[in-house]
Amino acid sequence: MSSEQLPESASILVIGAGVHGLSTALYAAQQGQDVLVLDKTGVGAGASGIACGVVRNNYYQPAMSELMAECVEIWEQYADELTYHDSGYIALGPPEQDSDLIEVFERQEKIGYPSELITGEDAVAEHMRGMFGDWRATGLTVCLHEKAGGFAFNKESMKGLADLARQAGAKIVEGVEVTGFEFDESGAATAVETSAGTVKVDQVVVAVGPWIEGFWEKLGLSDRIDVRRPDGSVDENLPMWTYWYLQEGEVALPPSTLNTDQGNPSPVIHVDSSAPLYADDGKLITDEQWGIYVKPDRDSVQGGASPIMLGNEFEVDPYPTGTVDDGFADMWCASLSHCFERFEGCREKFIDVRSGGVGAFTVDNFPVFDYMRPNVFVAADSNHGYKMIAVGREIARVLSGENSSLLYPFRFERFETGDLHPVSNSPYPWS
Ligand SMILES: Cc1cc2nc3c(=O)[nH]c(=O)nc-3n(C[C@H](O)[C@H](O)[C@H](O)COP(=O)(O)OP(=O)(O)OC[C@H]3O[C@@H](n4cnc5c(N)ncnc54)[C@H](O)[C@@H]3O)c2cc1C
């Protein structure tokens, strides 16, 4: 256990020191609440400390888009403390994604989120060459250039967020594992059992990222669920959780390699493409649709590609961090070279570093932010969430008795009522 001893009670006990636990602690402590955060390992030990760190608004679902706009404002407000870079974000797609990105752009216009839409292959290529003279990707017919958003450095941002929460008065105790709950007859939690003793609680926030499946069970919730579709039909007995491995990597090139021709740090770039992908030696990597993202990191160029589905159960401990698919480095480096001449030959610079990790996705691939017991609020973000720093502010509001219109669309009840989020044409569970 760290220097802070475990108190006997807490008004609000937060389990997990990732982005959701820490941002909840920050805002609840700012309200003057007595907040205790417990993490079995430490600040940023889970997905938040390994995330690529991309902050974007590009979401097809109105509720996600509105929430992200608020998140970006918080990243901007605490840019220094959170190592945030407001370089913007660019999504590029093939014709299949034209209509989605046009809709996203139109909604961003409505909510005043600053972005620019470019359509048509020539215009898209010209837009990209305006920033990167060596841009050479073909077949991309739509570009959504978000002028807000960007990226932050994962571990450092979580340490910065923890510092902000502590300054606001929250206690963060590392190295203490929550092992169970005591419930009263109404089903409310009266105490939390830990590896260092029992803590009496008024309210609990479960913000355990990929460890959610085990906590779901501890809360007496089922790992199977019926889901009503918007057309009224019901899919029965679906698995509540699915684990995916997010593959990421780095090339040992200076972050400035990605600078624009104007000398500015590059926006985060996300490309989905149907063009056949070849390695620099001409070998075909894939003739199926592929997708990648790339951004400058602290000392390198970092990004990721195709997630791998792991199944409905997964042993999260020890939390895995390492690229799993042998072909990942070939694919990601080939796609960088496909897009920019400057990355030709970058496969040799691929480095095996701690990167990539596991996320737990819900049955509809969108977050559940809701009370799952009378006084136990669960933040299960379906792996969308490093960027979602406003969720903790909203949770703090809900804990103090207010409503949150931003969190309402993510209530658990939607699976029963069929009030689901619209689904985009993206092949990935994160758009
Ligand atoms: C490789 C990868 C890249 C990603 N990139 C991005 C990105 O670029 N942008 C983006 O927005 N999202 C990204 N995500 C998703 C994002 O990282 C997660 O959605 C988000 O960080 C989850 O935050 P969290 O607070 O819920 O959980 P976590 O950050 O996982 O924190 C949970 C904490 O709970 C603690 N814990 C678990 N069990 C217990 C217990 N029994 N007792 C006490 N503590 C416990 C863990 O130690 C951990 O520190 C990425 C995810 C991965 C895996």
Outline the structure in words.
This protein has helices at residues 19-30, 62-77, 98-110, 121-131, 154-167, 212-218, 328-339, 390-399, 414-417, and strands at 9-15, 35-39, 54-55, 84-85, 89-93, 115-119, 142-146, 150-152, 171-174, 178-183, 189-194, 197-206, 224-228, 234-239, 241-251, 268-273, 277-278, 284-286, 290-296, 301-311, 350-351, 357-362, 368-373, 376-380. The chain is α+β, with helices and mostly antiparallel strands and 431 residues long. The chain has a single domain, classed as FAD/NAD(P)-binding domain. Strands 5, 6, 7, 15, 16, 19, 20, 21 and 22 form a nine-stranded mixed β-sheet that branches. Strands 1, 2, 9, 10, 11, 12, 23 and 24 form an eight-stranded mixed β-sheet that branches. It has a three-stranded antiparallel β-sheet with strand order 3-8-4. The longest helix is centred in the first third of the chain and has 16 residues, at 62-77. The model has no long low-confidence stretch (mean pLDDT 95).
